[in-house]
């Protein structure tokens, strides 16, 4: 079982200490005996311990930076929400195919933003612009926010902020089971709590440092019992020998655990595995022993929104994924909604 994350090293930006959350976090880490260093800005963080790239990368992933979010302009977040709400960046997990490896580039450390009220104010402005239509915010575009929230509680604050809002909805996804502190948040049904799931083989070989499938399912049951609307993202759907059985077992386990009341308002999102050439280079550098299949010649190309080709599965394979997983969902969760396959 993966333990809740504790940073090995904490950096703090001086102006973060002007915010209550910054003060609270520094006290917390000092009490825990974690080494705390000051930095004028996270961009100035150099000399992370470690003798080579491999070591530095791993230490960075267990380093937490307590900082202030300067840009309060939110990115859009299609297809699952209108905007990405920035609460943190980076992740302590070591999924070989993680999109953060390319988007975070040379800064794989985790950052948490303490100017949380300013971030909520910006969110309020976005909601006001679209009112009376509702506005959905995605909190996990640049991090696995749940993985760090047992320390910061910023996500919990966001859940309660949107709970009180008139037109706001929050959603996020996680591969971590450390959800206990979120169970008593006053969510008012406005947060959709999603778990990213995969079959046991894929989690075992490609998702080190994250909670195992049965732990994520146990956490999902707790979340459903706490009244949150629930969802699952099956991602990345990855074709390996025996994938049909692997995913069947995954759905069987889910079906055996989820209480009936959690199935009425349940969503599934399906995302096939994809990679880009730059991502392949980074994956092979960070996880040189990976078994991940990254052979461009076996895939088809798809033009990506960042102006770069993605390698996705061939059409027949995509059809097989849609048919097989779609039929499992219909069989085990006939009331659930499949939001998209991409
Ligand atoms: Fe990346 Fe999510 Fe894995 Fe974290 S849990 S390393 S964000 S894929």
UniProtKB/TrEMBL annotation:
Its EC number is 4.1.99.14. InterPro entries: rSAM, SPL, SPL_Bacilli, SPL_firmicutes. Its cofactor is S-adenosyl-L-methionine; [4Fe-4S] cluster. It comes from Ornithinibacillus sp. 4-3. GO terms for cellular component: endospore-forming forespore. Keywords: 4Fe-4S, DNA damage, DNA repair, DNA-binding, Iron, Iron-sulfur, Lyase, Metal-binding, S-adenosyl-L-methionine, Sporulation. The keyword Zinc-finger does not apply. One of its GO terms (molecular function) is DNA photolyase activity. It catalyses: (5R)-5,6-dihydro-5-(thymidin-7-yl)thymidine in DNA = a thymidine dimer in DNA. Involved in repair of UV radiation-induced DNA damage during spore germination. Can repair thymine dimer 5-thyminyl-5,6-dihydrothymine (known as spore photoproduct (SP)) by in situ monomerization of SP to two thymines. Gene3D superfamilies: 3.40.50.12110, 3.80.30.30. Monomer or homodimer. One of its GO terms (biological process) is DNA repair. It is an enzyme of class 4 (lyase). Pfam families: SPL. This is Spore photoproduct lyase. Belongs to the radical SAM superfamily. SPL family.
């Amino acid at each position: 079982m993966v333990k809740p994350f504790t940073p090995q090293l904490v950096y703090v930006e001086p102006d973060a200490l002007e915010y209550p959350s910054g003060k609270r976090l520094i006290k917390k880490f000092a009490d825990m005996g974690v080494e705390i260093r000051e930095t004028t800005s996270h961009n100035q963080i150099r000399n992370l311990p470690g003798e080579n790239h491999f070591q530095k990368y791993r230490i960075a992933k267990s380093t937490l930076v307590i900082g202030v979010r300067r840009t309060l302009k939110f990115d859009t977040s299609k297809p699952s929400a209108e905007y990405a709400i920035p609460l943190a960046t980076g992740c302590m997990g070591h999924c070989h195919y993680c999109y953060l490896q390319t988007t975070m580039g040379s800064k794989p450390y985790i950052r948490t933003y303490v100017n949380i009220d300013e971030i909520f104010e910006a969110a309020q402005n976005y909601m006001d612009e679209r009112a009376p239509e509702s506005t959905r915010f995605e909190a996990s575009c640049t991090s696995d926010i749940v993985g760090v929230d047992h320390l910061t509680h910023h996500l919990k604050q966001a859940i309660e902020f949107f709970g009180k809002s008139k037109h706001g909805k929050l959603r996020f996804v996680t591969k971590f089971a450390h959800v206990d502190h979120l169970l008593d948040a006053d969510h008012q049904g406005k947060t959709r709590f999603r778990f990213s799931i995969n079959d046991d083989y894929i989690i075992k070989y490609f998702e080190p440092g994250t909670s195992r499938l049965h732990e994520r399912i146990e956490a999902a049951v707790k979340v459903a019992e706490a009244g949150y609307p629930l969802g699952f993202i099956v991602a990345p759907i990855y074709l390996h020998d025996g994938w049909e059985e692997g995913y069947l077992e995954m759905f069987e386990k889910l079906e055996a655990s989820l209480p009936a009341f959690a199935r009425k308002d349940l969503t599934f999102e399906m995302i096939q595995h994809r990679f880009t050439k730059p991502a392949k280079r980074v994956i092979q550098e960070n996880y040189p022993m990976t078994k991940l299949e990254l052979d461009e010649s076996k895939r088809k190309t798809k033009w990506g929104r960042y102006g770069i080709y993605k390698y996705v599965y061939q059409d027949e394979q995509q059809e097989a994924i849609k048919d097989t997983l779609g039929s499992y969902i219909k069989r085990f969760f006939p009331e659930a909604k499949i939001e998209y396959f991409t």
